[in-house]
Amino acid sequence: MAEQVNTLCDQLIKAVNVMMDMNSSQRYRLEALKFCEEFKEKCAICIPCGLKLTDQSQPPIVRHFGLQVLEHCVKFRWNTMQQRDKVYLKNNIMGFVSKGTKNILEEESHIKDVVARIMVEMIKREWPQHWPEMLRELETLSLQGETQSEIVLLILLRLAEDVVTFQTLPTQRRRDIQQSLTYNMEKIFAFLQNTLQQSVNKYRRLKGDATQEAKAKGHCRVGIVALNTLAGYMDWVAMSHITADNCKLLEMLCLLLNEPELQLEAAECLLIAVSRKVRFFFTLCNALIVLDSIIVLVYFLQLL
After folding, report:
1. How far lies 291's CA from each of 14, 149, 277, 282, 298, in Å?
2. N or C: which end of the chain has fewer CB within 10 A?
3. Model-level pTM?
4. Higher local confidence (pLDDT), 280 or 32
Protein backbone atom coordinates (compact mmCIF):
# COMPACT_ATOMS: atom_id res chain seq x y z
CA MET A 1 0.00 0.00 0.00
CA ALA A 2 2.96 2.33 0.64
CA GLU A 3 3.73 2.58 -3.07
CA GLN A 4 0.10 3.35 -3.84
CA VAL A 5 0.05 6.06 -1.16
CA ASN A 6 3.26 7.63 -2.50
CA THR A 7 1.96 7.64 -6.09
CA LEU A 8 -1.39 9.11 -5.12
CA CYS A 9 0.22 11.76 -2.91
CA ASP A 10 2.46 12.86 -5.79
CA GLN A 11 -0.65 13.28 -7.96
CA LEU A 12 -2.45 15.20 -5.24
CA ILE A 13 0.52 17.54 -4.71
CA LYS A 14 0.56 18.31 -8.43
CA ALA A 15 -3.21 18.95 -8.38
CA VAL A 16 -2.96 21.27 -5.37
CA ASN A 17 -0.13 23.22 -7.00
CA VAL A 18 -2.18 23.58 -10.20
CA MET A 19 -5.15 24.92 -8.23
CA MET A 20 -2.99 27.45 -6.40
CA ASP A 21 -0.90 28.54 -9.39
CA MET A 22 -2.07 31.91 -10.72
CA ASN A 23 -0.81 30.97 -14.17
CA SER A 24 -2.93 27.81 -14.41
CA SER A 25 -5.80 27.93 -16.87
CA GLN A 26 -9.38 27.71 -15.66
CA ARG A 27 -9.74 24.30 -17.31
CA TYR A 28 -6.72 22.81 -15.54
CA ARG A 29 -7.81 24.27 -12.21
CA LEU A 30 -11.27 22.72 -12.52
CA GLU A 31 -9.77 19.35 -13.48
CA ALA A 32 -7.41 19.49 -10.49
CA LEU A 33 -10.28 20.46 -8.18
CA LYS A 34 -12.42 17.60 -9.50
CA PHE A 35 -9.57 15.13 -8.92
CA CYS A 36 -9.07 16.31 -5.34
CA GLU A 37 -12.78 16.27 -4.52
CA GLU A 38 -13.27 12.79 -5.98
CA PHE A 39 -10.28 11.61 -3.99
CA LYS A 40 -11.81 12.88 -0.73
CA GLU A 41 -15.21 11.36 -1.53
CA LYS A 42 -14.21 7.96 -2.89
CA CYS A 43 -10.62 6.97 -2.07
CA ALA A 44 -10.25 4.12 0.43
CA ILE A 45 -6.79 5.26 1.56
CA CYS A 46 -7.65 8.87 2.41
CA ILE A 47 -6.23 8.66 5.93
CA PRO A 48 -2.69 7.45 5.11
CA CYS A 49 -2.52 9.88 2.18
CA GLY A 50 -3.76 12.78 4.28
CA LEU A 51 -1.25 12.02 7.01
CA LYS A 52 1.62 11.81 4.54
CA LEU A 53 0.71 15.17 3.05
CA THR A 54 0.87 16.85 6.47
CA ASP A 55 4.59 16.18 6.85
CA GLN A 56 6.66 19.25 7.80
CA SER A 57 8.75 18.82 4.64
CA GLN A 58 5.73 19.76 2.52
CA PRO A 59 4.82 23.40 1.74
CA PRO A 60 1.97 24.92 3.79
CA ILE A 61 -0.64 24.62 1.02
CA VAL A 62 0.01 20.88 0.72
CA ARG A 63 -0.01 20.35 4.49
CA HIS A 64 -3.25 22.31 4.72
CA PHE A 65 -4.84 20.17 2.01
CA GLY A 66 -3.70 17.00 3.81
CA LEU A 67 -5.37 18.21 6.99
CA GLN A 68 -8.53 19.09 5.05
CA VAL A 69 -8.60 15.50 3.79
CA LEU A 70 -8.43 14.22 7.37
CA GLU A 71 -11.13 16.68 8.45
CA HIS A 72 -13.36 15.38 5.65
CA CYS A 73 -12.80 11.80 6.84
CA VAL A 74 -13.87 12.70 10.37
CA LYS A 75 -16.91 14.71 9.32
CA PHE A 76 -18.31 12.38 6.67
CA ARG A 77 -16.82 8.92 7.23
CA TRP A 78 -16.51 8.61 11.00
CA ASN A 79 -19.72 6.64 11.52
CA THR A 80 -18.70 4.01 8.95
CA MET A 81 -15.05 3.72 10.01
CA GLN A 82 -13.71 0.68 11.84
CA GLN A 83 -12.80 1.31 15.48
CA ARG A 84 -9.12 0.64 14.78
CA ASP A 85 -9.16 3.29 12.05
CA LYS A 86 -10.72 5.81 14.43
CA VAL A 87 -8.04 5.12 17.04
CA TYR A 88 -5.33 5.27 14.36
CA LEU A 89 -6.54 8.64 13.10
CA LYS A 90 -6.99 10.10 16.59
CA ASN A 91 -3.53 9.00 17.69
CA ASN A 92 -1.93 10.40 14.55
CA ILE A 93 -3.67 13.77 14.91
CA MET A 94 -2.52 13.95 18.53
CA GLY A 95 0.94 13.00 17.32
CA PHE A 96 0.82 15.73 14.68
CA VAL A 97 0.03 18.35 17.32
CA SER A 98 2.80 16.95 19.52
CA LYS A 99 5.61 16.51 17.00
CA GLY A 100 4.41 17.53 13.55
CA THR A 101 3.99 21.25 14.12
CA LYS A 102 6.54 24.04 13.92
CA ASN A 103 7.48 26.81 16.34
CA ILE A 104 4.49 28.93 17.38
CA LEU A 105 5.70 31.95 15.39
CA GLU A 106 6.60 29.87 12.33
CA GLU A 107 3.57 27.62 12.06
CA GLU A 108 0.89 28.97 9.74
CA SER A 109 -2.31 30.11 11.45
CA HIS A 110 -4.49 28.19 8.98
CA ILE A 111 -2.59 24.99 9.82
CA LYS A 112 -3.25 25.42 13.53
CA ASP A 113 -6.87 26.31 12.87
CA VAL A 114 -7.63 23.23 10.76
CA VAL A 115 -5.91 20.93 13.30
CA ALA A 116 -8.14 22.41 16.00
CA ARG A 117 -11.19 21.82 13.78
CA ILE A 118 -10.26 18.16 13.28
CA MET A 119 -9.81 17.65 17.01
CA VAL A 120 -13.16 19.28 17.75
CA GLU A 121 -14.92 17.15 15.14
CA MET A 122 -13.54 14.02 16.83
CA ILE A 123 -14.47 15.33 20.27
CA LYS A 124 -18.04 16.01 19.14
CA ARG A 125 -18.34 12.38 18.09
CA GLU A 126 -16.45 10.66 20.90
CA TRP A 127 -16.54 12.70 24.13
CA PRO A 128 -17.33 11.92 26.84
CA GLN A 129 -18.67 8.40 26.23
CA HIS A 130 -15.80 7.00 24.14
CA TRP A 131 -13.04 9.44 25.08
CA PRO A 132 -13.35 10.09 28.82
CA GLU A 133 -9.70 11.16 29.21
CA MET A 134 -9.87 13.83 26.51
CA LEU A 135 -9.38 16.84 28.79
CA ARG A 136 -6.48 15.24 30.62
CA GLU A 137 -4.81 14.34 27.31
CA LEU A 138 -5.21 17.90 26.04
CA GLU A 139 -3.71 19.31 29.22
CA THR A 140 -0.73 16.94 28.90
CA LEU A 141 -0.35 17.94 25.26
CA SER A 142 -0.30 21.64 26.17
CA LEU A 143 2.74 21.12 28.39
CA GLN A 144 4.94 20.23 25.40
CA GLY A 145 5.38 23.77 24.11
CA GLU A 146 3.83 27.05 23.04
CA THR A 147 2.47 25.73 19.73
CA GLN A 148 0.77 22.84 21.51
CA SER A 149 -0.66 25.22 24.13
CA GLU A 150 -2.07 27.48 21.44
CA ILE A 151 -3.69 24.58 19.58
CA VAL A 152 -5.24 23.18 22.76
CA LEU A 153 -6.69 26.61 23.54
CA LEU A 154 -8.08 26.86 20.01
CA ILE A 155 -9.67 23.43 20.46
CA LEU A 156 -11.40 24.47 23.68
CA LEU A 157 -12.58 27.74 22.12
CA ARG A 158 -13.98 26.11 18.99
CA LEU A 159 -15.66 23.38 21.04
CA ALA A 160 -17.48 26.00 23.12
CA GLU A 161 -18.47 27.92 19.98
CA ASP A 162 -19.84 24.85 18.20
CA VAL A 163 -21.69 23.51 21.23
CA VAL A 164 -22.95 26.65 22.98
CA THR A 165 -22.66 29.68 20.71
CA PHE A 166 -23.53 28.33 17.25
CA GLN A 167 -25.13 25.02 18.37
CA THR A 168 -24.05 23.11 15.26
CA LEU A 169 -24.70 19.65 16.72
CA PRO A 170 -27.79 17.44 16.91
CA THR A 171 -29.78 18.29 20.03
CA GLN A 172 -28.93 15.20 22.07
CA ARG A 173 -25.20 15.33 21.33
CA ARG A 174 -25.16 19.05 22.13
CA ARG A 175 -26.81 18.39 25.48
CA ASP A 176 -24.38 15.57 26.31
CA ILE A 177 -21.32 17.67 25.53
CA GLN A 178 -22.63 20.82 27.18
CA GLN A 179 -23.41 18.85 30.35
CA SER A 180 -19.89 17.42 30.28
CA LEU A 181 -18.42 20.88 29.78
CA THR A 182 -20.44 22.20 32.70
CA TYR A 183 -19.45 19.26 34.89
CA ASN A 184 -15.76 19.80 34.10
CA MET A 185 -15.87 23.60 34.06
CA GLU A 186 -13.88 24.00 37.25
CA LYS A 187 -11.00 22.03 35.68
CA ILE A 188 -11.32 23.85 32.36
CA PHE A 189 -11.33 27.29 33.97
CA ALA A 190 -8.39 26.36 36.18
CA PHE A 191 -6.47 25.23 33.09
CA LEU A 192 -7.28 28.43 31.19
CA GLN A 193 -6.37 30.63 34.13
CA ASN A 194 -3.11 28.78 34.82
CA THR A 195 -2.13 28.84 31.15
CA LEU A 196 -2.79 32.58 31.02
CA GLN A 197 -0.87 33.26 34.23
CA GLN A 198 2.15 31.18 33.23
CA SER A 199 2.39 32.62 29.73
CA VAL A 200 2.07 36.19 31.04
CA ASN A 201 4.73 35.58 33.69
CA LYS A 202 7.15 34.20 31.10
CA TYR A 203 6.37 37.04 28.71
CA ARG A 204 7.06 39.67 31.38
CA ARG A 205 10.39 38.07 32.29
CA LEU A 206 11.61 37.95 28.69
CA LYS A 207 10.12 41.00 26.98
CA GLY A 208 12.91 43.32 28.08
CA ASP A 209 15.67 41.00 26.82
CA ALA A 210 16.48 41.63 23.15
CA THR A 211 18.07 38.18 22.85
CA GLN A 212 14.81 36.54 23.96
CA GLU A 213 12.45 38.51 21.74
CA ALA A 214 11.14 35.50 19.80
CA LYS A 215 10.43 33.52 22.96
CA ALA A 216 8.70 36.51 24.52
CA LYS A 217 6.46 36.89 21.46
CA GLY A 218 5.62 33.19 21.61
CA HIS A 219 4.49 33.43 25.23
CA CYS A 220 2.59 36.61 24.42
CA ARG A 221 0.80 34.76 21.61
CA VAL A 222 -0.29 32.03 24.02
CA GLY A 223 -1.54 34.70 26.43
CA ILE A 224 -3.63 36.34 23.70
CA VAL A 225 -5.22 33.04 22.67
CA ALA A 226 -5.88 32.16 26.33
CA LEU A 227 -7.74 35.46 26.74
CA ASN A 228 -9.73 34.85 23.56
CA THR A 229 -10.66 31.40 24.81
CA LEU A 230 -11.70 32.77 28.20
CA ALA A 231 -13.92 35.28 26.39
CA GLY A 232 -15.61 32.38 24.59
CA TYR A 233 -16.56 30.84 27.93
CA MET A 234 -17.22 33.84 30.17
CA ASP A 235 -20.49 34.76 28.50
CA TRP A 236 -22.27 31.55 29.53
CA VAL A 237 -20.50 29.76 32.39
CA ALA A 238 -21.70 30.13 35.97
CA MET A 239 -20.50 33.39 37.52
CA SER A 240 -18.99 31.39 40.37
CA HIS A 241 -16.19 30.29 38.03
CA ILE A 242 -15.44 33.89 37.05
CA THR A 243 -15.43 35.14 40.64
CA ALA A 244 -13.68 32.13 42.22
CA ASP A 245 -10.80 32.64 44.68
CA ASN A 246 -11.88 36.16 45.62
CA CYS A 247 -12.15 37.24 41.98
CA LYS A 248 -8.57 36.21 41.19
CA LEU A 249 -9.30 36.02 37.45
CA LEU A 250 -10.86 39.49 37.36
CA GLU A 251 -7.90 40.89 39.28
CA MET A 252 -5.51 39.32 36.77
CA LEU A 253 -7.49 40.79 33.87
CA CYS A 254 -7.39 44.26 35.43
CA LEU A 255 -3.61 44.05 35.83
CA LEU A 256 -3.27 43.03 32.17
CA LEU A 257 -4.76 46.36 31.16
CA ASN A 258 -1.25 47.71 31.77
CA GLU A 259 0.22 45.35 29.14
CA PRO A 260 -0.08 46.99 25.68
CA GLU A 261 0.12 43.65 23.85
CA LEU A 262 -2.61 42.04 25.97
CA GLN A 263 -4.82 44.88 27.12
CA LEU A 264 -7.37 44.70 24.28
CA GLU A 265 -8.17 41.03 24.86
CA ALA A 266 -8.17 41.53 28.65
CA ALA A 267 -10.58 44.45 28.29
CA GLU A 268 -12.92 42.30 26.19
CA CYS A 269 -13.02 39.66 28.94
CA LEU A 270 -13.73 42.32 31.56
CA LEU A 271 -16.47 43.81 29.40
CA ILE A 272 -18.18 40.41 29.16
CA ALA A 273 -17.99 39.95 32.93
CA VAL A 274 -19.34 43.45 33.62
CA SER A 275 -22.14 43.12 31.07
CA ARG A 276 -23.25 39.88 32.73
CA LYS A 277 -23.37 41.63 36.11
CA VAL A 278 -25.34 44.50 34.57
CA ARG A 279 -27.81 42.09 32.93
CA PHE A 280 -28.26 40.35 36.28
CA PHE A 281 -28.85 43.72 37.99
CA PHE A 282 -31.52 44.79 35.49
CA THR A 283 -33.17 41.36 35.61
CA LEU A 284 -33.32 41.66 39.40
CA CYS A 285 -34.73 45.20 39.16
CA ASN A 286 -37.39 44.10 36.68
CA ALA A 287 -38.30 41.19 38.93
CA LEU A 288 -38.66 43.55 41.92
CA ILE A 289 -40.83 45.93 39.87
CA VAL A 290 -43.13 43.06 38.85
CA LEU A 291 -43.28 41.82 42.44
CA ASP A 292 -44.11 45.32 43.69
CA SER A 293 -46.87 45.62 41.09
CA ILE A 294 -48.36 42.30 42.18
CA ILE A 295 -48.31 43.40 45.84
CA VAL A 296 -50.09 46.66 44.94
CA LEU A 297 -52.64 44.78 42.83
CA VAL A 298 -53.38 42.32 45.65
CA TYR A 299 -53.77 45.24 48.08
CA PHE A 300 -56.39 46.96 45.92
CA LEU A 301 -58.22 43.71 45.27
CA GLN A 302 -58.54 43.25 48.99
CA LEU A 303 -60.14 46.71 49.31
CA LEU A 304 -62.86 45.83 46.80
Report:
1. 71, 49, 21, 14, 11
2. C
3. 0.91
4. 32
